[in-house]
Amino acid sequence: MNKTKMLNGLMFGALISVAGTASATVENELVIDFGGTGNVFMTSSSYAGFANNAPIGGGNCAGTGATGCLYQNEMVIGTIEDTSNSTAHLHRSGSAGDRKLGYHADSPGIYVRAQDSSAFSLISMDFFAAISDENPDNGPDDFWEILGFNTALNPGLDTGNGTDYATRVAYQTVANGFSGNLLLSSDFQNINAFWIHFNGYPQTPADGKEFGMSLDNIKVGAAVSHVPVPAAAWLFGTGLLGLISFGRKKTGLSV
Hints:
By secondary structure, the protein is an alpha+beta fold. The protein has two helices and 13 strands, in the order αβββββββββββββα. The chain has a single domain, classed as Jelly Rolls (Sandwich).
């Protein structure tokens, strides 16, 4: 009987330890709002911090730009390091009553992660990329890419081609010309960072290509794990159950 109890305890403890998951800092839905009436969140006209690299000088965002990254609700928002353009930066767009984050063809894109590098879910965002003088093209190759990663820091993104990043776990495209609320697929429910950039331009364009978009109201929430309990754990549990059953039968025969 004591052996049976011991085996039960071992099986329960093993399954709990295998099934357990780490908690994330973002536990409730929150919205990154880039400013409006009564909100002076964006106090500078441009931001040049590299959010994809390890922090320098004890800060939370790499890069030496005068204004660095933006911070709100424990999230870090910046661009990525562009080895071809040391002055790459994001913009403050919109009016004082309705600020947005702007990304134009003088930057390799927008990069967002949690300040403590923990996982989160990307739910939706207001994405504005209407065809205009500064964003004129709407051919089949003119679209925006959103890449989700399973690590918070991803150096060297500007030298990749978008498909060879080992840490990429989510991907979604947005047609140029789209303006409205964009819902992200379920693949973005457990990521550590995401990057938005124009297709074919992980670096600042050097060929005169023009594009431009703005972003607002990024909604994030708690990470949702899609990882099932490994098959080995179920096999381990089944084996323990078999041992328990055998022990009970053996005890019954000896009485």
